[in-house]
Structures are given as C-alpha cells and as structure tokens.
Amino acid sequence: MKTRVVILGAGFGGLELSTMLSEAFGDAIDVTLIDKGDSFVFGFSKLDVMFGRKLPDAVRNRYSDFVKPGVRFLRTTVRSIDPVNRRAVTDDGTFEGDVLVVALGADYDVAATLGLAEGGNEFYSVPGAFALRDILPRFERGPAIIGVCGKSFKCPPAPSETAFLLHDYLTARGRREATEISVVMPFGVPIPPSPEASQAILGAFADRGIRFVKDQLVASLDPARKVAILTDGTEMPYELFLGIPVHRVPQVVVESGLSADPYNWVPVNKQTLETNFPGVYAVGDVNGVGTPKAGVFAESSARVVAKAIIAKIRGEEGPAPFRALGSCYLEFGGGQVARVDVEFLAGPKPTGSFLGASEAFIAEKSVFGSSRLQRWFGYPPPQ
Ligand SMILES: Cc1cc2nc3c(=O)[nH]c(=O)nc-3n(C[C@H](O)[C@H](O)[C@H](O)COP(=O)(O)OP(=O)(O)OC[C@H]3O[C@@H](n4cnc5c(N)ncnc54)[C@H](O)[C@@H]3O)c2cc1C
Prior knowledge:
It is built from ten helices and 23 strands. It is of the alpha/beta class.
C-alpha cells in the first residue's frame, strides 16, 4: 500500500516537500498537492514587476509544468480541513492522507486597516504588486510612504528593499527631487536579528534621503485628507501609499481548529513541525514556529517534514531537528545586493551575519531563483 500524503498549498513549502518525496520514492508514493492558483510567483518577483523590471507573464511559473512521478497536482480551493482524520474538503472532492501537510501560507486582511483599500495600494499580493506597475508611472511629486500595517509580516527586508527600488525608480524618471520617501516599521531597526544589516540599511537610507520611522505601524489611512495615521496618533501626509497589509491565518485553517484565531499562527513542535494532531504538519508562513515569514524558512521547514516522512516509510531514524537557518538576499538598489545569514532556533536568541552589498550577490540571488525553478518545474538554467 502506498503512503498517501496530502499537501495543501503549492508555495515554497508545498513545492519543496512534494519534490523531495518524488525524488525519494517516484511512483511508489501517492502525493496529492492542492492549490487554488494556476502558478507560483516568487515574492521578490512581485517587486520586479511592480518597478517595471519584468513582465507579469515572465514571473508566473505554471503548475502545469510541475510534473513529478508520484505527485498529482490539483487546482482547486480547500474549503475545510479535518485534522483528526487528516482530511481536506475541496471544490473537487475530499482527500484523506496518512500524512496531511498544511502549507497554505499567510493571507492578507486589507480591510483591517481602515482606508487602505480605498486610499492606498498594497503590494504584497500578486494582483496588488502587478497593478502598481501602472500606478507608479503616475506618481510625480510629494510624499511616498512604505508602511507596515501589522506586526507579523512576510520577508522583513522587503519594505526596505522597496524603498531603495522606489528611490532608483524615481531617480531614473527625474522625479526624486520632487518626492520624499519614508518607511514605517514596527521595529527599532530594519532587521532586528542582524544589527550589521540594520546599520547598513540605515546608512543607505541616510545617503539616499529616505526617512525611517521606527517602532510604529500604520493604523489607518484617511483617503480624503491623504494622511496615514500611525499607532501613536502621528499623522503623515502621503501622495503614494505602498502598504504591507495585516497578515492573518487563512480562515479555513482557523475553522479547522489548527489555530486559535486569525492572529495566532498554527502551533507546532519546533523541532518537527508537527501540529497538535498526529500526522498533521504545518510548514511555512502558516506556522507559529517563530521564524520570519520567508520562503527560505518555508522551504527548510518543508525539508524537515519530507525527511521525517521518508525516514518513517523506510523505517529509519527521524531527521535532525529544524534549525531555521537561512539566507536572505537584500536589494540595496543601484545594482547592489547583500546577503544576511540568519539562524533562529539553535540558541537562546536569533543570530544573523551580514555580507555587505555587492554586485557579486546579484548572480547568487539569481541562482537562488533559477535553481528552484529548475528543481521544481524542470526549467532550463538561464544562459
Ligand atoms: C514582496 C515580497 C518579497 C519577498 N521576498 C522574499 C525573498 O527575497 N526571500 C524569501 O525567502 N522570501 C521572500 N518573501 C516571502 C515568501 O514569498 C513567503 O514567505 C513564502 O512564499 C512562504 O511560503 P509558503 O509555502 O509558506 O506559502 P506561499 O508561498 O504563500 O504558498 C501558499 C499557497 O497556498 C495556496 N492557498 C492558500 N489558501 C488556499 C486554499 N484555501 N485552497 C487552495 N490553495 C490555497 C496559495 O494559492 C499559495 O500558492 C517575499 C514576500 C513578499 C510579499
């Protein structure tokens, strides 16, 4: 009898997990990978499209190209999850596994920030980022705010990267002197686990005249007056508002009982990623393991779960505990990329080391993307 693994969500976590299981067992395993979308888009590709560096079609990686022995991809929406019986109900039937993996990521709650939908632009979703491609060319003058609206958000370096890329974009259009850029963040420094990276970012902000507003969230927008209202009541005028919306646990996950409420990420065993329900795992952004919400951690958590499933089927010893070790690339603009290596669960405090901005990391970042596309979708490496 083949082991049945049902994986909900084909993002960073789901793609890596199904790839590893296919590599280990080929047709001797029965994996069902479910996603409501038709394609996978890297988070950083959203910025590429938004700033006109790439076309939308160039960054969509179609699930029809995800063809692996032992894995069936199904495009459908998950409507309910029964963790006791490791079962998911979708628009196209019910799927039950010996193992159930929830990899549904984080959802956005745009409505939680009053005025954001009417008076601002969120750039974290694919439609939001792609729409900005046509909105940014109309921004001519005045203040731009890159504002974080909730404490827990994907890819903590992304707001700073967006500020650097906006600076370059406006400079190239000859509009930088007529505009101001501010970044509002809920931390004291841009990347708390890495003081060196934070210093480098703050230095680069100062060089470019970008204002860093620390320890604040954007609580609401008043579109009529074009002001953003921060958590301490400060009002900041804006002409362009680029928002990082409040993140929440997908409703279907909350309703399953896997998480207590929309703002409590799924509790898991930090070493194994298993939830409170035996045989049910939560990988990536949806879990509450305590790492930043980033593809690298979604991928490395998926690897630990894949190794555990492989070991169990083979009757071998389970894998080493999840260490939450990962590298993030950070765009400084001007053709410079830096790398931050962080480790979250090994010691009492997260640690991070910073490898300064240089042109060399541009190639490394590009390989980070292309190697995944090759592994997951079978795309040839770029020439
Ligand atoms: C602007 C930006 C830049 C980023 N840059 C980086 C970066 O440089 N490096 C990095 O490591 N990370 C980066 N990230 C973060 C990264 O994209 C996420 O952390 C990562 O995708 C999380 O992986 P995941 O598998 O947990 O979830 P996701 O990749 O979000 O996948 C979840 C999947 O579940 C599907 N789904 C959700 N609900 C349902 C449902 N009910 N039914 C069926 N399917 C459903 C979704 O369609 C989605 O495909 C960035 C994010 C953003 C927004």
